[in-house]
Write a structure and sequence with these properties.
By secondary structure, the chain is an all-alpha fold. It has one domain: UbiA prenyltransferase (Tetracycline Repressor, domain 2, Orthogonal Bundle), CATH 1.10.357. The protein is built from 18 helices and no strands. The chain starts with a helix and ends with a helix.
Amino acid sequence: MASEVEENLPDSELRGAARLLPASLRSYWFLARFDRPIGSWLLFWPGAWAIALAGGAARRWDLVLWLGLGAIAMRGAGCVYNDIVDRDLDRKVARTADRPLASGRLSLKAAWAFLCLLCLVGLVVLLQFNPPAAMSALASLFAVALYPFMKRITWWPQAWLGLVFSWGALVGWPAITGGFAPTLWLLYAGSVFWVIGYDTIYALQDIEDDALAGVKSSARALGRNVRAGIALCYAVAIACWAAAFWEVRPQLLSTAALLPVSIHLLWQVAALVAADPADALAKFRANRFAGLLMFLACLVVSSTA
């Protein structure tokens, strides 16, 4: 019976490794959203960009891999924590009502234990970085802890998510350089606006249920202007990234490396069907590829600096 219920979860996907797991472990897999790796990719990319733009992608490829593991573990931990805090709200939204905690398939005690296990994995990753990077990573915990409450107090929880999901840049750069620099802050600012843009697209899936449940979001705040709002966020992101590239290589040619990712983000906005949840999810997931294009741009600029 449990497997039959989980196959119909609107917020989970019973595929890949999830199909191989016994039913008793499947709820943990879904709780951490391991069935939906897009979140791990989006958390990973800003850190990878910072390492690449700082010129460390080739000689410290091991740190890129550690960042990847950290992104998987800490994104999972963030999802577990978010579901612990939001379990009552999740019951009121159709897409999230059958999540393991909201549906009661998993106990609160079990969720906390799983959260601790994921944090231990994060600690192992943390120990691989130099002190400035490690301290920066630890500082992110405050922002992570507050995120689930933002949708209750502000119409722009996506802005706070931008701060959290871009934090990898504040870890990757000092991991290579040992410190912070204007280039990093421009890269980070661009990532924040990128996250606001793509998470506004994601929020379009729940706009009606969020209104009924009283959940705030940028998608609801923007209303009919949502496409223009997303476009503005993406435009600011590109401008910040162009400025960061200029800091590394002060030539107009360096900004040309942003052309592929700029075209991709423009396509997202132009082709977005705001009223179609399936299309919103597809455009949101397309940002995994946008992250890759930005990573390649960082590699090009750093290698020619």
